[in-house]
Specification:
The complex is a heterodimer of chains A (232) and B (265).
Chain A (H helix, E strand, L loop, with lengths): L4 E12 L5 E13 L4 E5 L6 H9 L6 E8 L2 E4 L5 H10 L1 E4 L11 H10 L5 H14 L16 H13 L5 E5 L7 H16 L3 E5 L3 H7 L2 E4 L8
Helix pairs in contact in A: 3-4, 3-5
Chain B lengths: L5 H4 L4 E10 L2 E11 L4 E5 L6 H8 L7 E7 L5 E3 L5 H10 L1 E4 L3 H4 L6 H11 L5 H14 L16 H13 L5 E5 L7 H18 L2 E6 L2 H7 L2 E6 L2 E7 H6 L4 H8 L5
Parallel strand pairs in B: 3-8, 3-9, 6-7, 7-8
Antiparallel strand pairs in B: 1-2, 1-4, 4-5, 9-10
Helix pairs in contact in B: 5-6, 5-7, 6-7
Classes of the chains: A alpha/beta (232), B alpha/beta (265).
Chain lengths: 232, 265
């Protein structure tokens, strides 16, 4: 089977110029792959570099060396060396990212925040909003809130809006950074269901989850990040 | 074989090649090169004196370069060197295919004539002559930039700062330009007015598939509006890349300083 994500020997160091040029090694020798329909969970203690790896796969952090192979429209592209325009294309049609926090744009209604990833891919506003509504329902966001911007919502509500926005798309790769962190049991169960549906659709996923129970429910494979600890 | 994305195979709209400008012994802009594609928003960030406004003037042909050149792909698909355009051609470009949003709306508007005339004037310049159609289009555009059409006959000097800026945007966009230059478009506005303007710009840019070169010292503006960012210091581009990459993982000492200087909201 052709891997959707194929990371080879990726390395990341931060150089803190404002702190006298301190070198902060984050990870090195990162090597793993993710097949379609598989959810790989990154494990390791806080600060081991899990989020950094997720950001490297999304093209948000640059790599010092190594390869971030992504299957994009039938061909492999190396995001570590791709042009900004290519990275944007990959994000629009291949990789989705559910971050820990919603970066809300002022004045945009919740339903449109969720529908946006479909609209930019050419789906009509009506259809996109209908699908956004279904997901918001499943994630227990009451309909009376849909027309309001999510900026004033509680942390848990914002996180669910964020999840709806991340899961609405039909992208073949999803990166999940603690998707269940601030959710109650009922909503955690919905996220587990959503992940299972994505697997059946053949979506490749990389997730960071601290909750052991959730990890057990969604992980097909666990990659231990401590083995990529950069030599300081 | 991969499907070609339309964004992959179209040609650049504007290409700057080793653009430099000196004022006497002061080098305001040194060897700047980049390509801008249709629908792409590029932010040029840096402090005052970094050369970003000079660069914007070079790119828009308002200032002649000391070395290097800018080529622009005209609506007929042919790339032309800006320096070889005649004055009339350059003016025509400015009235049709380009927009320029100044920080101070008074520079981009005629303050004593009505809002409707400010917008309609751009249309007349490209040959529209039916009064009713011009007025209807102007009125549509006022609505799109969230100005009450009851104010169409008022002159912008009676408008608030935020309204003036939105009117300037309407005036620029009415001829459906493909490229808009913006010089600190949210500078000097109250924070709440800024947020509304940014939100409006963000949706218009996406809807009209505009290419934009925006000069700003405000990294939050760059993050919200741009795909790509160029950081300038001392007339040079010191760092460039995807906006979130440069802002979340800045490499150069100066970029790290800029990013770390943002106060958390």
């Amino acid at each position: 089977m052709t891997a959707m994500i194929d990371v080879t020997d990726a390395k990341k160091t931060f150089t803190m110029h404002l702190q006298g040029g301190i070198e902060l090694p984050v990870v090195s020798g990162v090597t793993f792959h993710v097949d379609p329909g598989e959810c790989v969970v990154l494990s390791g203690p806080s600060g081991a570099g899990k989020s950094s790896i997720l950001k490297m796969i999304f093209g948000n952090y640059r790599c010092d060396s190594g390869r971030i192979g992504i299957r994009h429209r039938g061909a492999q592209i190396d995001l570590a060396s791709a042009e900004p325009r290519q990275v944007l294309n990959v994000r629009r049609s291949t990789i989705g990212y559910v971050s820990q926090f919603l970066r809300a744009v002022p004045r945009v209604a919740t339903i449109d925040v969720v529908a946006e990833p479909l609209i930019v891919n050419g789906i009509s506003r009506t259809d996109a909003q209908a699908r956004a509504g279904e997901l918001l329902h499943r994630l227990n966001i009451p309909e009376r809130l849909w027309q309001l911007p999510p900026a004033t919502f509680s942390g848990g509500e914002q996180q669910r809006v964020n999840i709806a926005r991340g899961f609405i798309s039909d992208l073949p790769i999803l990166l999940l950074d603690e998707p269940t962190a601030s959710l109650d049991a009922a909503n955690r169960a919905v996220v587990v269901e959503l992940v299972a549906e994505k697997k059946r659709q053949g979506v490749a996923m990389v997730a960071i989850v601290h909750d052991d129970e959730i990890r057990h429910l969604i992980a097909d494979r666990i990659v231990d990040v401590t083995s990529f600890a950069a030599a300081a | 074989m991969a499907d070609q994305d339309p964004l992959d195979n179209d040609e650049p709209l504007l290409v700057a090649t080793s653009l430099s400008k000196s004022f006497g012994r002061i080098a305001a802009c040194r060897h700047v090169s980049f390509s801008l594609y249709p629908g792409e928003v590029l932010a040029i960030v840096g402090e005052s004196g970094s050369g970003k406004s000079t660069l914007l003037q070079l790119l828009s042909g308002q200032l002649a370069a000391s070395a290097g050149h800018v080529s622009y792909r005209m609506r007929d698909g042919v790339a032309r060197d800006l320096a070889t355009l005649g004055e009339a051609e350059r003016r025509f470009l400015f009235r049709t295919d380009w927009g320029f949003v100044h920080q101070d709306p008074a520079q981009g508007l005629r303050m004593a004539v009505s809002a409707g005339a400010n917008v309609g004037e751009r249309l007349m310049a490209v040959g529209w002559n039916h009064y009713g159609r011009i007025r209807d289009t102007a009125s549509d555009w006022l609505t799109r930039v969230e100005i009450d059409t009851a104010r169409i006959d008022d002159a912008p000097r009676t408008y608030s700062g935020g309204m003036r800026q939105r009117l300037q945007i309407a005036r620029n966009l009415v001829t459906e330009p493909r490229l808009v230059f913006m010089d600190e478009p949210t500078g000097g506005l109250d924070v709440s007015v800024q947020a509304r303007l940014l939100d409006l710009l963000r949706s218009l840019v996406a809807e009209l598939h505009l290419a934009v070169i925006i000069v700003t010292h405000d990294l939050a503006v760059a993050r919200l509006l741009s795909h790509r960012v160029m950081v300038m210091k001392g007339g040079r581009v010191i760092e460039t890349g995807l906006t979130d990459q440069v802002l979340d993982d800045p490499r150069e000492p100066y970029t790290q300083l800029l990013v770390s200087s943002i106060l958390p909201p």
